[in-house]
Specification:
heterodimer, A: 345 residues, alpha/beta, Rossmann fold, 4-stranded antiparallel beta sheet, 11 helices, 11 strands, B: 274 residues, MetI-like fold, 77% helix
């Protein structure tokens, strides 16, 4: 089983070329009264392949949203470049669609008109009917047909608003779809349904998605790869975790997959412990350094401890020995499942 | 009974109570037979010099409103004609003001530089009573008609200007970002995002302006004379016709209310809920 996964991994890498290359992206904010500027993140370098769904996780203040805004063209980095399809990006573009956390629908327009607003901007030569049909089709894809499309955002629930926002983003068919914590403001149940819808809509297209999230389970459900950022200031993109769970994924099923808990524990362990302990980029030369690729889902239970320890060491470039905190989190992964079945029987 | 029914009923009761007290407390004119010789010689003037009762005003209103557009020369025109003159001046001055206030307000709202540059001028010019401009306007324009229009222009420009600037400056950043990420040019952003987003605030400014303009036109016409509802009030005062004065005061109120209601309509049409 392990070998099959590895081949899939290899083939996908050769089949998809890089859509986006981010090189040495750095953002500093000038401090008042001439003090040393605040470096939020430094030398973030990573690639996103065509058709890939990439999530980025990190604590508040590590600069995820800034990276997102730079990709969207709404903010500029202090240094570093972002290259999409061989061209450096400068300013916002319809090639990069954005879904914001607070929906960003225009409140004076109906749901349909909000989508049509985007479609008309994207395809100015289309007839009104074409724009309308295309928009309506995308609203239906997220379950908002049959009259709901005529409602104003204020007449829609939070979940429905985010659906409209997602429909608008997919309808303009951008090369890269940027999702800035799209489900952050939604309750857990609604979030689940819309995640399912997002993954369904995404599977029907070959859309490349880059998404910020705070939710580890959401990342595992949706992403091909999860980028982990260490804590700011001087944050960096430390690891690229391959989510090796076959698609189509279903919320109810993935928790039973062998790979699920190793991946989940790896992510949680990073967020709770290692994101803090990793040396920040001011200590080491991180220029042109790609994040370390980790495949926790491929590991057997026995391997996990050793490799995790290795990756930590690698991630720190050997300057700091492996954190002892890694091993307890590894120990709980399978036993916790056993305990659960034990109590049931 | 619901509040919807109760309120108008109470309004009517209040109206009739006030009118009743007013009617009863007005001294009646003694008939000619009962007058003393002196009173007859005075033509009953002492009794006639009084605030007329509501019934007299109602009769006057009926007369005037049944033939509102008669024209018997410069000093005797129907109430409809006078109102039409006033409305023409108000609308002319108001539209001129809107023509300048809306674009300039947009500019000020969008550019902090323009805001900082123009703000001192606005702050100094805004508190000036519009009638203070009248002598200067009369001297420069040399035409009382256009001077009245200028006074309306200058008094209605400020609320529109300031509200437009405020509304435009406070359009939510998210909506601007929507325009940016959809590659909308600045003109299209202004027309399809900023304008609808700021429209309720702009309309509030326009509504305040039309209210002020209607307040000011009465005073301005009292000064420039000739025609208009303001002139009419003053003329009837000179005629010692208090019935007409009170009637025209009421007409001014009703027309002002209608103007405001019109703008309230437009305002609710552009209102949106976030």
């Amino acid at each position: 089983m392990t070998s099959i996964k590895v081949t899939k991994q290899d083939s996908s890498e050769s089949a998809h070329s890089s859509l986006l290359k981010i090189q040495n992206l750095t953002r500093r904010y000038p401090s008042p009264d001439g003090a040393e500027p605040l470096t939020v993140f430094e030398n973030a370098s990573f690639d996103i392949k065509r058709g890939e769904f990439v999530c980025i996780i990190g604590h508040s203040g590590c600069g995820k949203s800034t990276i997102m805004n730079v990709l969207a063209g709404l903010d500029t980095a202090t240094s570093g470049v972002v290259i999409m399809d061989g061209q450096e990006i400068a300013g916002p573009s319809l090639d990069r669609g954005v879904v914001f956390q607070n929906y960003s629908l225009l409140p004076w327009m109906s749901a349909l008109n909000n989508v049509m607003f985007g479609v008309r901007a994207r395809f100015p030569k289309w007839s009104r009917q074409q724009v309308r049909d295309h928009s309506y089709k995308h609203l239906e894809m997220v379950g908002l047909g049959d009259g709901a499309e005529q409602r104003k955002p204020s007449q829609l629930s939070g979940g429905m608003r985010q659906r409209v926002s997602i429909a608008r983003a997919f309808a303009i068919q951008p090369k890269l779809l940027l999702l800035d914590e799209p489900f952050g403001a939604l309750d857990a149940l609604t979030r689940g349904t819309i995640q399912d819808e997002l993954i369904r809509v995404w599977s029907d297209t070959d859309q490349t998605v880059f998404m910020i999230t705070h939710d580890v389970d959401e990342a595992i459900l949706l992403a091909d790869r999860v980028l982990l950022m260490s804590n700011g200031p001087y944050a960096r993109v430390a690891e690229s975790v391959v989510i090796d769970i076959p698609r189509p994924r279903r919320r109810a099923d993935i928790v039973h997959m062998d790979a699920y808990y190793p991946i989940r524990n790896h992510l949680v362990d990073f967020l709770t412990t290692r994101s803090r302990l990793l040396p920040d980029s001011s200590d080491t030369d991180t220029r042109n350094q790609q994040p370390l690729t980790v495949c926790p889902g491929l590991l057997k239970k026995t391997d996990t401890l050793k490799v995790l320890a290795d990756t930590t060491a690698l991630g720190t470039q050997g300057s700091i020995p492996a954190k002892p905190s890694v091993s307890p989190s590894v120990d709980i992964q399978k036993p916790s499942l056993t305990v659960l079945t034990g109590t049931q029987s | 009974m619901t509040t919807k029914l109760k309120a108008p009923l109470l309004s009517l009761i209040l109206l009739f109570t006030i009118l009743g007290i007013w009617e009863v407390s007005t001294p009646t004119v003694t008939s000619a037979e009962n007058m003393t010789e002196y009173e007859l010689l005075m033509g009953g003037a002492a009794d006639e010099a009084r605030v007329p009762p509501p019934s007299a005003i109602a009769v006057k209103a009926f007369e005037e409103l049944s033939d509102p557009f008669y024209d018997n020369g410069p000093n005797d025109k129907g109430i409809g004609i006078q109102i039409a003159y006033s409305l023409y001046r108000v609308l002319a001055g108001y539209l001129l003001a809107a023509l300048i206030a809306l674009p300039v307000g947009f500019l000020i709202g969008m550019s902090p530089l323009a805001y900082k540059t123009l703000d001192p001028f606005i702050q100094v010019l805004r508190p000036i009573s519009p009638l203070a401009w009248m002598p200067l306007a009369l001297f420069i324009i040399q035409d009382s008609e256009y001077s009245a229009i200028f006074v309306i222009f200058i008094c209605s420009i400020w609320p529109m200007l300031i509200n437009t600037a405020f509304g435009v400056a406070n359009v939510r950043k998210d909506w601007i970002n929507v325009a940016l990420t959809h590659e909308l040019g600045s003109l299209r952003t202004a027309a399809s995002v900023i304008l609808p987003a700021a429209a309720p605030t702009i309309l509030t400014g326009m509504r305040i302006s039309i209210g002020i303009a209607w307040l000011v036109i009465v005073a301005a016409e009292m000064l420039v004379g000739g025609t208009g509802i303001g002139y009419y009030v003053w003329n009837e005062w000179n005629n010692l016709d208090l019935t007409s004065v009170i009637f025209s005061i009421l007409v001014i109120g009703v027309v002002g209310m209608l103007l405001d209601a019109m703008f309230a309509r437009v305002q609710s049409a552009v209102q949106y809920q976030e």
